Amino acid sequence: MNIADFATPIGIAIISGDEKGVAVILIMQTGAISSIVPENLRKPTAQLNECFDGKRNDFDLKSTQKAPIFSKNFGRKCARFPLGKPCRISIYQKN
């Protein structure tokens, strides 16, 4: 598992993954920044940076996680958050 840490407008992003895909993306308030981004994390790092630059709304990354419906719906709604503005979302999981 490789890890890349880089600065974003909302904190330090930490991406963990391997050749199968991204395992975890976290945003922390503080942390160290990687000097080298591993090859398999360059695409996710670039896409996240494009999102923060306002150039990307959708991601086409492989994930090593199987997300439940709640997480998938939450991810879709998070993609529409306006950066720098407070917002509230509601998510209901259908049974």
What's this, in brief?
This protein has 95 residues and is of the alpha+beta class. The chain has helices at 42-52, 69-78; strands at 2-8, 11-18, 21-28. The protein starts with a strand and ends in a 17-residue tail after the last helix.
Describe it for me?
A three-stranded antiparallel β-sheet has the order 1-2-3, covered by helices on one side. It has two helices and three strands; from the N terminus they run E-E-E-H-H. Strand 2 and strand 3 (21-28) form a beta hairpin. Helices cover 22% and strands 24% of the residues.
What class would the helix/strand composition place it in?
A: alpha+beta
Q: Strand count, sense and closure of the main sheet? A: 3 strands, antiparallel
Shape: globular
Oligomeric form of this entry?
Answer: single chain
**How much of the sequence is in beta strands?**
15-25%
Helix content: 10-25%
Low confidence ranges? 86-95
Strand order of the largest sheet: 1-2-3
- Helix-strand pattern, N to C? EEEHH
Question: Measured on Cα atoms, how large is the radius of gyration?
Answer: 14 Å
**How far is it from the N-terminal to the C-terminal residue, by CA?**
34 Å
- Number of DSSP-assigned strands: 3
Mean pLDDT: 76
Number of helical runs? 2
